[in-house]
């Protein structure tokens, strides 16, 4: 499997020094499933069915403009007890945005998501995972904690359900945050492989002794 920038210990340490959440404590076999780019009118409700069938609570990082388009879908996510964050309003890379533009984008996304589902996000994930000290500072001003993750099986490339499952199982460990997607920039994007992979992963990881929690519970287990 191609290795990512986050495989570098120095990069991970720099991120942690900036206050970015990369993973959780490794002293218990807890993992967090996270989903970006929703809500999607088809994929998100289907994902909710999968998670409900397995009794799993996850963390969602919706896009503001999608929340504005499909507020009822996001309300379903919140009503099911899942944690709600933000992925920004327009999926614009934070590192390429002037501070005033980024602050406006994040504020708009938080307000839109709160209006849609009644939950004000406390965590944010940068599009593409691109983050720098300035964007972390702006998030702090807005009372948002930046969350990345340490397992990304690149489900958006649609490599096959088995590949998504295999990549995840090879990389996962106690405290892992798994990055997946229930939506996309295009409504026509196919997330069938992701849904099937989640359905297969949950029982497999449980058989290995893992418990699924939200990012908030991962970091604050008591």
Give helix % range.
40-55%
**Number of structural domains:** 1
CATH class placement: Alpha Beta
Oligomer status: single chain
Mean pLDDT rating: 94
Our estimate of the beta-strand percent is 5-15%
* Low-confidence parts: none
Helix and strand succession? HEHEHHEHEHEHEHEH
N- to C-terminal separation? 35 Å
CATH fold-level label: TIM Barrel
Please report the total strand number as a whole number. Answer: 7
CATH homology superfamily: Glycoside hydrolase/deacetylase
The secondary structure category is alpha/beta
Detailed description of the structure:
Helix 4 crosses helix 5 (99-117), helix 5 packs across helix 6 and helix 7 (161-171) packs parallel to helix 8 (192-207). The chain is built from 9 helices and 7 strands. With 222 residues, it is α/β, with parallel strands linked by helices. The model has no long low-confidence stretch (mean pLDDT 94). The chain has helices at residues 9-17, 43-54, 64-69, 71-79, 99-117, 133-141, 161-171, 192-207, 215-219; strands at 30-36, 59-61, 83-84, 123-124, 145-146, 177-181, 211-212. It is 43% helix and 10% strand. The protein is globular and about 45 Å long.
